[in-house]
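Hi F.,

I've been meaning to write this up properly since the lab meeting, where we talked about keeping a consistent format for the predictions we share between groups. The idea is simple: the sequence comes first, exactly as it goes in, then the structure tokens exactly as they come out, then a line or two of notes. No screenshots and no reformatting. I'm using this chain as the first example so we have something concrete to point to.
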Amino acid sequence: MTPAPHRSHTDDLLSFIAASPSPYHVVASAAQRLEKAGFRELRGTDDWTGATGGLFVSRAGALIAWYVPEGAAAHTPFRIVGTHTDSPNLRIKPAPDTGTSGWRQIGVEIYGGVPLNTWLDRDLGISGRLALRGPDGVPRSRLVQIDEPLLRVPQLAIHLDRSVNEGVALDRQRHIAPIWALGEPREGELLRRVAAAAGEDPADVLGWDLMLHDIQPPGYLGVEREFVVASRLDNQVSVHAGVTALVDAATGAAQPAFIPVLAAFDHEEVGSGSETGAQSPMLERILSRSVAARGGSDEDWSRALAGAFCVSADMAHAVHPNYSERHDPDHRPLPNGGPTVKVNVNQRYATDSTGIAMFTAAAERAGAPWQPFVSNNAMPCGTSIGPLTAARLGVTTVDVGVPGLSMHSARELCGVRDPGYLAAILTTIMVGD
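Output, unedited:
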């Protein structure tokens, strides 16, 4: 059966995923764990002068957290773990109440690279955040999570589409509106239902960022329960590992030799182009301000970056047993073989030999295995926040990830040991020698 240390880590991971159906919930879950470990939240309008210990800044679906050991010099280099909080899904339109042929439906948009067939015939809930009327005209935000089978995208019966198993593409505009009742559309119905779940007056709702999620809980699969199956493994596996590593680095017996940092960005699945994405100046501004808060100069900031190292942690592809020809013939990562180090000479990943050496040395110290990953030359290669972070900050970066199957599906799979291996390696990197 699964060794206890790995099962303990993945039990905690599954609890994290169940509580985090949207990027905003991911940030709230991470913040709750950090606060429990003694971290405190800083606001942009606060005075950061002299701030040490565990600190974090959250903004919508993004979070930057770091730990400053007592007496750390202003030029102390950073050890950064970069992740993302978002996952491909179906997001609710601004005017959502629609319907046809006697059915009430909800209008949705496709967010990211969604394999639409995986969202068919699944029981779907609603999650996200509401922007509400607040005191003095300043809007306030409220998270909402409805883990009830409210909606469903029904598949067309095979009797009405004999070509369904021939890979016919779905019409991305017409056939993805979920059903949730019979009758004519009722304007404002969805808003009333969601506001009630949040305990708010619909009249106070000024806007929202709402999305659908599969309500089937995460769990284990396999003869020896050697696999984790859950929604949003990409990329909550890495966020959870990063939070775990940062807390371990901050609360361990040995003080870190560096400034450990967790950067969890939003909107990676659609290019990271937002105020909370990896292309934004958010991480750069927060880290430079943390240097200045410790009395650092521009020279100290440059020195801190010159000695910095970033691990971009995102999910990776395990070799698929039914489509092995789609993978590089000499690079066949498997679940429970350890995280992969992702290489692409065209810089879709930021990994180079220096980054490989630093990551694999940490894996050796952590006693954790690792595997190399390269995409098949005949297939387009994905990317991550690694190249964006490397270009923005000019720091050595390595792209890594837990290997899995069904990436971007409504329900993904990875090995039960690999999330714990990743967390152990990241802790070793954050603490340093």
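Notes:
Residues 168-173 have pLDDT under 50 and may be disordered.
The longest helix spans residues 233-251.

If this format works for you, I'll send the rest the same way.

G.
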